[in-house]
Amino acid sequence: MRIAVISDIHGNMEALQEVFDDIENSGVDSIICLGDMVGYGPEPEAVVQWIMSRDIPTVMGNHELAVLDPAYVDLFNPAARKSILTIIPWLSEESMAFISALETSLTMHSGRFVHGFPPDSIITYLFQIDDDGLVDAFRHLEEKICFVGHTHKMTIVSWDGKDIIKAPLKEGHVKLYADRQYIINNGSVGQPRDGDNCAKYLIWDIAENSVDIRFVPYHIAKVTNKIVEAGLPEVHADRLW
Protein backbone atom coordinates (compact mmCIF):
# COMPACT_ATOMS: atom_id res chain seq x y z
CA MET A 1 0.00 0.00 0.00
CA ARG A 2 1.15 3.51 -0.88
CA ILE A 3 -0.02 6.42 1.29
CA ALA A 4 0.36 10.07 0.30
CA VAL A 5 0.96 12.22 3.37
CA ILE A 6 0.21 15.93 2.99
CA SER A 7 0.44 18.72 5.54
CA ASP A 8 0.33 22.48 6.10
CA ILE A 9 -1.69 23.43 3.03
CA HIS A 10 -2.53 26.79 4.58
CA GLY A 11 -5.26 27.89 2.22
CA ASN A 12 -3.08 27.46 -0.86
CA MET A 13 -5.37 25.80 -3.43
CA GLU A 14 -2.94 26.37 -6.30
CA ALA A 15 -0.31 24.25 -4.55
CA LEU A 16 -2.83 21.67 -3.37
CA GLN A 17 -4.22 21.13 -6.86
CA GLU A 18 -0.76 20.56 -8.34
CA VAL A 19 0.09 18.17 -5.52
CA PHE A 20 -3.16 16.27 -6.05
CA ASP A 21 -2.44 15.98 -9.79
CA ASP A 22 0.96 14.53 -8.88
CA ILE A 23 -0.64 12.13 -6.40
CA GLU A 24 -3.12 10.92 -9.01
CA ASN A 25 -0.24 10.03 -11.32
CA SER A 26 1.72 8.19 -8.62
CA GLY A 27 -0.29 5.03 -7.94
CA VAL A 28 -1.36 6.06 -4.45
CA ASP A 29 -3.98 4.08 -2.54
CA SER A 30 -5.01 6.78 -0.06
CA ILE A 31 -4.17 10.24 1.31
CA ILE A 32 -3.73 11.40 4.91
CA CYS A 33 -3.56 15.07 5.96
CA LEU A 34 -1.58 16.28 8.98
CA GLY A 35 -3.54 19.48 9.50
CA ASP A 36 -3.10 23.23 9.06
CA MET A 37 -5.48 23.33 6.13
CA VAL A 38 -6.10 27.01 6.95
CA GLY A 39 -4.12 30.11 7.90
CA TYR A 40 -1.81 32.36 5.84
CA GLY A 41 -3.36 31.55 2.46
CA PRO A 42 -6.32 33.05 0.59
CA GLU A 43 -8.60 30.00 0.05
CA PRO A 44 -9.16 28.21 3.37
CA GLU A 45 -12.77 27.30 2.64
CA ALA A 46 -11.87 25.73 -0.71
CA VAL A 47 -9.10 23.69 0.89
CA VAL A 48 -11.28 22.39 3.73
CA GLN A 49 -14.08 21.52 1.31
CA TRP A 50 -11.58 19.73 -0.95
CA ILE A 51 -10.37 17.61 1.97
CA MET A 52 -13.93 16.91 3.13
CA SER A 53 -15.23 15.97 -0.31
CA ARG A 54 -12.57 13.27 -0.65
CA ASP A 55 -13.02 11.86 2.88
CA ILE A 56 -9.33 12.34 3.59
CA PRO A 57 -8.41 11.35 7.17
CA THR A 58 -7.09 14.53 8.80
CA VAL A 59 -5.68 15.53 12.17
CA MET A 60 -6.04 18.93 13.79
CA GLY A 61 -3.28 21.47 13.22
CA ASN A 62 -2.48 24.47 15.37
CA HIS A 63 -4.19 26.79 12.90
CA GLU A 64 -7.39 24.76 13.16
CA LEU A 65 -7.01 25.00 16.93
CA ALA A 66 -6.69 28.77 16.58
CA VAL A 67 -9.89 28.92 14.54
CA LEU A 68 -11.70 27.20 17.41
CA ASP A 69 -9.95 28.70 20.45
CA PRO A 70 -9.63 32.50 20.75
CA ALA A 71 -7.20 32.09 23.64
CA TYR A 72 -4.77 30.21 21.42
CA VAL A 73 -4.99 32.90 18.70
CA ASP A 74 -3.50 35.35 21.20
CA LEU A 75 -0.29 33.30 21.20
CA PHE A 76 0.26 33.83 17.47
CA ASN A 77 2.53 36.54 16.10
CA PRO A 78 0.64 39.63 14.88
CA ALA A 79 0.60 38.67 11.18
CA ALA A 80 -0.53 35.09 11.84
CA ARG A 81 -3.16 36.36 14.27
CA LYS A 82 -4.50 38.81 11.69
CA SER A 83 -4.65 36.03 9.11
CA ILE A 84 -6.65 33.70 11.34
CA LEU A 85 -9.07 36.39 12.50
CA THR A 86 -9.59 37.45 8.87
CA ILE A 87 -10.34 33.99 7.52
CA ILE A 88 -12.65 32.72 10.27
CA PRO A 89 -15.73 34.44 8.72
CA TRP A 90 -14.85 32.85 5.37
CA LEU A 91 -15.37 29.34 6.74
CA SER A 92 -18.82 27.83 6.32
CA GLU A 93 -20.72 26.14 9.15
CA GLU A 94 -20.02 22.82 7.46
CA SER A 95 -16.28 23.48 7.42
CA MET A 96 -16.28 24.65 11.04
CA ALA A 97 -18.10 21.49 12.09
CA PHE A 98 -15.52 19.40 10.24
CA ILE A 99 -12.66 21.25 11.93
CA SER A 100 -14.30 20.91 15.35
CA ALA A 101 -14.46 17.13 14.97
CA LEU A 102 -10.79 16.61 14.05
CA GLU A 103 -8.74 14.28 16.24
CA THR A 104 -5.32 15.25 17.61
CA SER A 105 -3.74 12.09 16.18
CA LEU A 106 -4.55 9.07 14.05
CA THR A 107 -3.11 5.57 13.93
CA MET A 108 -3.57 3.94 10.54
CA HIS A 109 -1.70 1.36 8.48
CA SER A 110 0.59 0.66 11.48
CA GLY A 111 1.74 4.30 11.49
CA ARG A 112 0.97 7.35 13.62
CA PHE A 113 -0.05 10.71 12.22
CA VAL A 114 0.02 13.93 14.26
CA HIS A 115 0.49 17.59 13.43
CA GLY A 116 3.19 18.53 15.92
CA PHE A 117 4.88 15.72 17.85
CA PRO A 118 3.95 12.23 19.03
CA PRO A 119 1.91 10.95 20.54
CA ASP A 120 -0.69 13.69 19.98
CA SER A 121 0.68 17.22 20.37
CA ILE A 122 -0.80 19.82 18.07
CA ILE A 123 1.59 22.61 19.05
CA THR A 124 5.01 21.05 19.81
CA TYR A 125 7.63 21.51 17.09
CA LEU A 126 9.97 18.64 16.25
CA PHE A 127 12.99 20.97 16.51
CA GLN A 128 12.08 21.83 20.11
CA ILE A 129 12.83 18.30 21.32
CA ASP A 130 16.38 17.44 22.33
CA ASP A 131 17.90 13.98 21.90
CA ASP A 132 16.85 12.81 25.36
CA GLY A 133 13.31 13.87 24.62
CA LEU A 134 13.40 12.08 21.28
CA VAL A 135 14.61 8.87 22.91
CA ASP A 136 11.80 9.08 25.43
CA ALA A 137 9.27 9.67 22.64
CA PHE A 138 10.53 6.69 20.65
CA ARG A 139 10.41 4.45 23.72
CA HIS A 140 6.75 5.30 24.20
CA LEU A 141 5.89 5.19 20.50
CA GLU A 142 4.04 1.96 19.77
CA GLU A 143 4.35 2.41 16.01
CA LYS A 144 7.49 2.01 13.92
CA ILE A 145 6.87 5.30 12.15
CA CYS A 146 5.23 8.62 12.95
CA PHE A 147 4.56 11.40 10.45
CA VAL A 148 4.44 15.02 11.64
CA GLY A 149 4.09 18.47 10.09
CA HIS A 150 4.08 21.92 11.73
CA THR A 151 7.70 23.00 11.02
CA HIS A 152 7.27 23.22 7.22
CA LYS A 153 10.71 21.59 6.86
CA MET A 154 11.23 18.03 5.65
CA THR A 155 13.23 16.09 8.23
CA ILE A 156 13.84 12.47 9.15
CA VAL A 157 14.72 11.37 12.68
CA SER A 158 15.51 7.73 13.44
CA TRP A 159 16.37 5.65 16.50
CA ASP A 160 17.96 2.22 16.48
CA GLY A 161 17.70 1.64 20.21
CA LYS A 162 20.97 3.47 20.89
CA ASP A 163 21.55 6.49 18.66
CA ILE A 164 19.37 9.33 17.40
CA ILE A 165 20.08 10.21 13.77
CA LYS A 166 18.67 13.40 12.20
CA ALA A 167 18.84 14.57 8.60
CA PRO A 168 17.01 16.88 6.21
CA LEU A 169 15.00 15.14 3.52
CA LYS A 170 15.80 15.80 -0.12
CA GLU A 171 13.73 15.07 -3.19
CA GLY A 172 13.81 11.40 -4.14
CA HIS A 173 13.57 7.89 -2.72
CA VAL A 174 14.50 7.02 0.88
CA LYS A 175 14.73 3.41 2.04
CA LEU A 176 13.82 2.84 5.69
CA TYR A 177 15.45 0.24 7.95
CA ALA A 178 13.38 -2.43 9.67
CA ASP A 179 15.38 -2.18 12.91
CA ARG A 180 14.76 1.56 13.40
CA GLN A 181 11.85 3.74 14.43
CA TYR A 182 11.18 6.97 12.59
CA ILE A 183 9.65 10.39 13.06
CA ILE A 184 9.33 12.01 9.64
CA ASN A 185 8.34 15.59 8.96
CA ASN A 186 6.96 15.75 5.44
CA GLY A 187 7.13 19.50 4.99
CA SER A 188 4.45 21.82 3.67
CA VAL A 189 2.21 21.83 0.63
CA GLY A 190 1.25 25.46 0.92
CA GLN A 191 4.14 27.34 2.54
CA PRO A 192 7.56 25.60 2.39
CA ARG A 193 10.28 27.13 4.57
CA ASP A 194 13.32 25.14 3.48
CA GLY A 195 14.74 27.42 0.79
CA ASP A 196 12.92 25.65 -2.05
CA ASN A 197 9.54 27.08 -3.02
CA CYS A 198 8.02 23.91 -4.48
CA ALA A 199 5.06 22.33 -2.72
CA LYS A 200 6.22 19.33 -0.68
CA TYR A 201 4.68 16.03 0.30
CA LEU A 202 5.70 12.38 0.51
CA ILE A 203 4.47 8.92 -0.40
CA TRP A 204 4.93 6.16 2.16
CA ASP A 205 5.27 2.72 0.58
CA ILE A 206 4.38 0.32 3.37
CA ALA A 207 5.30 -2.90 1.59
CA GLU A 208 8.67 -1.55 0.45
CA ASN A 209 9.31 0.29 3.75
CA SER A 210 10.33 3.49 2.00
CA VAL A 211 9.25 7.06 1.38
CA ASP A 212 9.30 9.06 -1.84
CA ILE A 213 9.92 12.76 -1.27
CA ARG A 214 8.02 14.84 -3.80
CA PHE A 215 8.75 18.44 -4.84
CA VAL A 216 5.95 19.93 -6.95
CA PRO A 217 6.14 23.34 -8.66
CA TYR A 218 3.02 25.52 -8.83
CA HIS A 219 2.02 29.05 -9.94
CA ILE A 220 3.20 31.05 -6.93
CA ALA A 221 2.31 34.47 -8.37
CA LYS A 222 -1.37 33.51 -8.59
CA VAL A 223 -1.39 32.78 -4.87
CA THR A 224 0.54 35.87 -3.82
CA ASN A 225 -1.84 38.06 -5.82
CA LYS A 226 -4.83 36.42 -4.12
CA ILE A 227 -3.27 36.95 -0.69
CA VAL A 228 -2.79 40.67 -1.33
CA GLU A 229 -6.23 41.10 -2.91
CA ALA A 230 -7.85 39.36 0.07
CA GLY A 231 -6.29 41.83 2.48
CA LEU A 232 -4.17 39.21 4.23
CA PRO A 233 -0.70 40.13 5.53
CA GLU A 234 1.71 40.55 2.60
CA VAL A 235 4.46 38.82 4.56
CA HIS A 236 2.60 35.57 3.90
CA ALA A 237 2.76 36.27 0.17
CA ASP A 238 6.45 37.18 0.26
CA ARG A 239 7.29 34.02 2.18
CA LEU A 240 6.12 31.80 -0.68
CA TRP A 241 9.01 32.90 -2.87
The first-level CATH class name? Alpha Beta
* Largest β sheet strand count, sense and barrel closure: 6 strands, mixed
- Spans of at least 5 consecutive residues whose pLDDT stays below 50 are none
CATH topology: Purple Acid Phosphatase, chain A, domain 2
Could you spell the SSE succession in H and E letters?
EHEHHHHHEEHEEEEEEEHH
Going by CATH, the architecture would be 4-Layer Sandwich
Mean pLDDT: 97
CATH superfamily: Metallo-dependent phosphatases
Instruction: State the shape.
Output: globular
Strand numbers in spatial order across the main sheet: 3-4-5-9-6-7
By DSSP (H or I, 4+ residues per run), the number of helices equals: 9
Cα distance spanning the termini? 34 Å
Specify Rg, calculated over alpha carbons: 17 Å
Q: How many distinct beta strands? A: 11
Helix fraction, binned, reads 25-40%
Strand content: 15-25%
Question: What is the number of independent domains?
Answer: 1
